[in-house]
Design goal:
Number of strands: 22
Distance between the termini: 65 Å
Helix content: 10-25%
Structural class: alpha+beta
Radius of gyration: 25 Å
Largest sheet: 6 strands, mixed
Shape: globular
Oligomer: single chain
Strand content: 25-35%
Number of helices: 6
């Protein structure tokens, strides 16, 4: 019986791995790595990833007196979540039917894969700094607007760009395309099978993820309570500086209604091209990361008005008006997009020992995910307890190179 049980559970584990690979739509498109487990233990499950360097241009033949570009090593902290697990039991009666093992293996795989995709999608939806607001239903032109905003900022040239549509907005895009007779077979596919082609240079995916951006209350009259500007640095004390975000002060009678995840613009603060620093003519968009409901907000991206890492035309002036973009009073699902390499999914492996009671099996999926299954049979209760485990971190390395499209906003 023990050998037969072991073989049955090994088969279940193999099917668990195969099922996992088939359910990773969003995570398949993220940048992935597997940091050294020993290093992670010594660092408290926190490690740092580098961001790109930027440079200033000086003009002239003799540049001996010109200011040198400050070389600043920007790094982003990546923190592992607590492990995600599926825990279940099979008793001696249920073990007689191999379908129980097979179906629980499939269920465990789907649930863990869905959890990773959900958390990755939600991380991007909460931090992405480019915001496309749409008054009505989503249409393919909104994808084109997202691409235009990225290109105007010098983002994604020569790199893949990905767009993920939630089921409801995907439906509206399919309807929009289905009504366009001149698109021929693509219109027919949209009309008959709700299938849309890649949109405006984006690799376009339909997902079953729904990351909602909360409805907003009355926030009119909100202004900056002080000048908002940020200086990029390499270190804060003994730790690398997280230059993706900064703190600002806001004022107004309705600031208690501001929520984490809100998106907004600041008067007279435009986005610039990330490389040549020219004014895009488009307002910079920001997200509230934390501090919602108070006068002190942590926002992303940081407002950098000069130097090689300049991202805006000017600092936020004291008293400058703040305009919120997510104006719906009810929660609306976000559609996320990003340039290749700026959204990361990092995997870890826990050290489950063998020969100490529970049996342990480990494997790595096709897309690099280390998975563990451990199980133990209690002969007194006649029950096998199984645990399926994965460890990972979801990180937005550069919020300025990813975004959200919000449809049905007043």
């Amino acid at each position: 019986m023990p050998n037969a049980l072991t073989k049955d559970l090994e088969i279940m584990f193999e099917e668990y791995i195969e099922g996992y690979d088939a359910n990773c739509v969003v995570s398949m498109e993220a940048e992935k790595s597997f940091p050294n487990p020993t290093d992670m233990q010594r660092a408290g499950d926190v490690f740092y990833k580098p961001q790109n360097y930027h440079a200033n241009v000086v003009t002239g033949l003799d540049i001996s007196a010109a200011a040198r570009t400050d070389v600043i090593q920007r790094q982003v902290p990546t923190v592992f979540r607590q492990p995600d697990n599926v825990l279940f039991e099979l008793n001696a009666r249920e073990l007689r039917d191999p379908e129980h093992k097979k179906r629980m293996g499939e269920a465990a795989a789907k649930r863990l894969a869905a959890e990773i995709d959900k958390n990755l999608y939600s991380t991007v939806a909460a931090q992405a700094a480019i915001v496309v607001k749409k008054t009505g239903a989503l249409a393919w032109t909104d994808g084109a607007q997202a691409e235009a905003l990225m290109l105007s900022r010098g983002i994604g040239s020569g790199r893949d760009r990905k767009l993920f549509l939630n089921p409801f907005d995907y439906k509206d895009v399919a309807q929009d395309l289905g009504n366009r007779a001149y698109l021929g077979d693509r219109s027919k596919d949209a009309y008959e099978r709700s299938k849309v082609p890649d949109i405006a240079g984006f690799k376009t995916f339909r997902t079953d993820n729904v990351a909602n951006i909360a409805g907003i209350g009355t926030v009119s009259g909100t202004t900056l309570g002080a000048v908002a500007s940020y200086t990029v640095s390499a270190m804060t004390g003994d730790l690398p500086t997280d230059n993706r975000r900064m703190s600002i002060t806001v004022a107004g009678a309705n600031i208690a209604n501001i929520k984490n995840g809100d998106s907004f613009q600041i008067a007279n603060v435009n986005a610039v091209h990330q490389v040549d620093k020219s004014d895009t003519g488009q307002p910079m968009t920001f997200r509230v990361i934390s501090g919602g409901g108070t006068a002190n907000l942590v926002i992303s991206p940081a407002i950098v008005a000069s130097g090689p890492y300049q991202n805006v035309t000017a600092a936020g002036a004291n008293g400058a008006a703040i305009t919120f973009l997510n104006t719906s009073t009810v929660a609306r699902p976000a559609n996320v997009f990003w340039a290749d390499g700026v959204v990361a999914l990092d995997y870890g492996r826990l050290a489950f020992p063998t020969g100490q009671g529970a049996e342990v099996m480990t494997a790595t999926t096709k897309n690099g995910v280390p998975l563990i299954m451990s199980y133990n049979f209690n002969h007194l209760t006649g029950i096998v307890t199984c645990r399926c485990t994965t460890l990972y971190a979801t990180t937005v390395l550069d919020p300025e190179q990813c975004g959200i499209i919000l449809a049905n906003q007043p």
